[in-house]
Design a protein that fits this description.
0% of the residues lie in helices and 42% in strands. It has 120 residues and is mainly β.
Amino acid sequence: MGLGVGLLESTGRFPGDDFSMVFAGHVRTRWSFWGPFSQLSTLENGSQVIYQWDGYNFVYEVTGRRVMEPEEGELLFRHEEGTILLLTCIGYDPATGDYAERLLVEAKLVQEPYLITEQQ
């Protein structure tokens, strides 16, 4: 299990792409450390997410969230410019060692990109 956040292939590749970018990260790692998306479930509508890319900050605002089944992969492929989707596993079952569901958080770009060195 990786410790970072990954950009899912076949989704948007950069801010402003025609398709939504989908980022996936673990809640916990193999060694029981907290993963990069351990607090994803605490984000509420209106929470801000900042994505840094190519020297710029892109500010997104959470607009929704849903619990999905692992088989509902079609929900990850959206033709929506200016949207990111954050994905992690939830519903851990200690008997099986598996996560039963996925949490999908949607955020929309709400601010013009600005250089990382600029103060906002």
